[in-house]
Each structure stands twice: as C-alpha cells, then as structure tokens.
Design goal:
This protein has 248 residues and is of the alpha+beta class. The chain contains 13 helices and 4 strands. α7 packs parallel to α10 and α9 runs antiparallel to α10. It is globular, with a radius of gyration of 18 Å.
Length: 248
C-alpha cells in the first residue's frame, strides 16, 4: 500500500473529511469519511485529478462518486435486468462457496467480494440474514493476514449502521477488532481504526472496552505517527477528537 500524504480537507458543509491522498500514475487515491444518514462512512476512492487545489471540482467528484456507490431498488433492477441474479441469491451463493472452499486464495477472493458489498446500505438486511458479518468476524481469527484484512474491511464498511454494529458487538467482535490495531498490515489497521470510530459509542460496555488505557495508548501512538503513516495518524486523531477530547 502506498503512503498517504497529509491532506485533512473539509468539504460539502462538514459532510466529507478527506484524511489523505496519494498518487497512483494518473489517478489520485483519496481516503475519506463521508456523512450519510447521520453516520460517517469510511471510503477509499480513485479520482482522475492532479491535486487538491481545486476544492470545487473535488466537491463535485465526491458527490458524483457517492451517487454511483449506493444502490436502490431502481438501480438494482437496471443492473440485473429481467434475467439477472437477484442480490440475495448472489450473496447466498458467495457464502456457500466460502463454506465449501478449501484453497486459501479462493477464500480470500470470496471474502474480498463480500466486503465490497458491505459498504452499501441496500445490502445490509441481506448480509445480516446470511450471517455475513459473523463470517467477517470469524476471518479475524484466521492466521491468513489477507482473510483478516478483508474481514476487517467488511466490518469497517458495515458497522456505521446501528443494526450491523449490534450484530458485531453481540458476536464478540470488539476484542478481535482491537487486536487488529496491532496487525502488520496497514489496511487492516486503517479498517480497525475506522470501525472503532463508529462502534465506540454503541453502548456503555463497548465504550469501556474500547477506551481502556492500553487501547488508547496505541491509538495515541498512531495519532503521533504522522511521518510514518498519515492515514493512521488522521484516523487516530479523529477517533481521539470524537471519543476522548470532546468529553474532557
């Protein structure tokens, strides 16, 4: 994963926070939180722009990209057509394939695919129905770092929604998410920080578990590590600002 440059930028009337960006050939990759339906969503997207200097155009691009990212019944019908596979059936087939898979690479591809569906509220009821969130949590216990990464990504994508957060908490996912803060994989740490940002205030018990001294010490070290990884630092600072500094 390439290094993110510093770039905390506020857009769209406080509805989007760009934490960092990096260049990939002719593309710029943005890591940002976007407020939707009173919740914050962690996103990493590609734009064909050369810099952050033109905030107006970036505003427009973020808005257009968000319109493309989220599904509704009309868009789903347009995508699948009359002969396409319904979303429930398709996701059920992915879950069955994962359960029957024996190769690690096959499992990795399936979990990555499921994680890609977990950012969209259109899929949330189906994901809970198929126990996909529990599948993501099980992946956090695997020795395969790719499965941990993709499982953590799926949790981060979905956990801003209260019912999904409830499922994750009830499945004892919090200790496993906290453990991911010490992962050697940068994406996994980013996802863990994002997930804890969302879930911390779910209830008193989750708050007490997440705000233990040893967890805060690690998050504070990430916040101070801007020269090592800007995305870690910015996400950690956002967590501390919301859950620690705002209450002191």
């Amino acid at each position: 994963m390439g290094r993110f440059n510093s770039g905390l930028v506020e857009l769209k009337n406080n509805n989007t926070l760009v934490f960092g960006f990096r260049r990939e050939k002719k593309l710029t990759v943005f890591l940002f939180l976007s407020r939707r339906h009173r919740s914050w969503w962690l996103c990493c997207i590609l734009f064909q722009v050369s810099s952050l200097s033109n905030i107006k155009w970036l505003h427009v691009l973020v808005e257009l990209r968000e319109r493309e990212m989220f599904t509704n019944n009309q868009r789903q019908e347009e995508r699948t057509g009359k002969t396409g596979t319904p979303r429930l059936q398709y996701l059920q087939e992915l879950v069955s394939q994962f359960q029957n898979a024996t190769g690690e690479q096959t499992k990795e591809k399936i979990v990555a695919n499921l994680a890609n569906f977990s950012y969209d509220p259109y899929n949330y009821t189906i994901l809970r129905q198929l126990n996909v969130l529990e599948l993501f949590i099980d992946c956090l216990t695997e020795p395969n770092e790719k499965l941990v990464e993709f499982g953590m990504g799926g949790i981060c994508n979905a956990c801003a929604e209260p019912k999904n957060a409830a499922t994750i908490v009830e499945a004892d996912g919090i200790p496993l998410i906290i453990k991911c803060l010490s992962s050697p994989v940068r994406n996994t740490v980013n996802y863990a920080l994002g997930a804890l940002y969302y879930i911390c205030d779910y209830n008193r018990a989750t708050r007490e578990m997440i705000l233990r001294a040893e967890v805060l010490d690690l998050i504070e070290r990430y916040a101070a590590a801007e020269t090592v990884c800007v995305s870690f630092s910015n996400l950690a600072k956002a967590f501390l600002d919301k859950h620690v500094h705002a209450r002191t």
